[in-house]
Write the structure tokens for this entry.
Amino acid sequence: MKTVAIFGVGLIGGSFALAIRKAGFQGKILGISSDDTIRAALERGVIDEGRPAREAAGEADLLYLAQPISKIVESLEELNAWVKPEALITDAGSTKQAIVDRAKQVISRAQFLGGHPMAGRERRGVEAAEADLFQGRPYVLTPGAAEELETPAAREFLGWIPRIGSVPLILGPEEHDRTVAFTSHLPQLVSSALAATLDGRPEPKTGVYGPALVDSTRLALSSFDIWGDIFLTNRRHILVALEHYITKLEEFREALGGGAMRRHFDAAARLAGEVRDST
């Protein structure tokens, strides 16, 4: 792998570029983004050059699609005519089924391997990128079949995942989307719903709150420009997660002030402890 093309040099794409460079990548990193983003990425040393998409795709050994989901789908439709047959195309989209399905339809000249690094921040853009963003975080790959991980290009890419500090996990696209509906998309909606509930109310304006409110609304800072695509492409699984959460809230309402509430708190504390122990 001598040349990597980052399509979308924002938080994730920029962090991937910084991470592989820190891990020892000696080749060329090309960026495909807006003019302003390319200038910022060059100033920070995130990429070596900015290139037009067609030119970068024809040169790259690894094409890393770190755009919003709808833009990844659009990019896939163009790349097949430009990419080298021995190259690997991968993505960092937060949902996988829609992307993998589209790749099966339009990518024939090179290999596509779906991916999702489970890392992020509330801030967007290349200015927020950091080399250690993926440290200790799962990096999900969603091959259509096990043998897709055995090609030379896939094996090389798979080798870089632990080098940037991530833990590779293999899931099917459907299983991935069902899982993240509960572990990623539901937490975002919970945080946004809490902040939206308090928006316009007088209580927050008093300043009478502590770290609990700050921590609980942290994800509400996230941009809808990213989340809109996630909700559209994973709506079915997110609706199931929301139904489970609404049911639990109703149980809380019934148990409030009673002995059953202790059981809910004990179960919640147990899960919270397991999550923190695992990370």
Remarks:
- The mean pLDDT is 96.
- The beta strands are 3-7, 28-32, 49-50, 62-65, 88-91, 111-117, 138-142, 167-170.
- Residues 2 and 26 are 8 Å apart (CA to CA).
- The chain is about 50% helix and 15% strand.
